[in-house]
Prior knowledge:
The protein is mainly beta. The chain has one helix spanning 109-118; strands at residues 24-25, 32-33, 50-51, 67-76, 80-87, 93-97. It is built from one helix and six strands. The longest helix has 10 residues, at 109-118. One zinc ion is lined by residues 52, 64, 66, 87, 89-90, 92.
Amino acid sequence: xxxxxxxxxxxxxxxxxxxxxxxxxxxxxxxxxxxxxxxxxxxxxxxxxxxxxxxxxxxxxxxxxxxxxxxxxxxxxxxxxxxxxxxxxxxxxxxxxxxxxxxxxxxxxxxxxxxxxxxxxx
Length: 122
Ligand SMILES: [Zn+2]
Ligand SMILES: [Zn+2]
């Protein structure tokens, strides 16, 4: 007699990869970054820097490990504000959704505004 146990989280395994949404310490400003409740944040909420670890957000498939500098902010009609990162080591660009409305650790709006101002015309 075997029971087939069905976990509530089982549907998550249909994803192509395991998203790692863990806390990390920012290499640039030293802020401790908590994982998002919803979605996947790969950047520091304080200075918006990231590290080149992902090919797709959360997959940790890029072996580069270079520092991803925020170079622009774009607004997306469906996804809201997105930050554009460029890797200082290999030049790859990546886009990540900003988490301005996160309840625990929202992205710093003044940093976002500064970036929007400096990247006008990007
Ligand atoms: Zn930082
Ligand atoms: Zn890179």
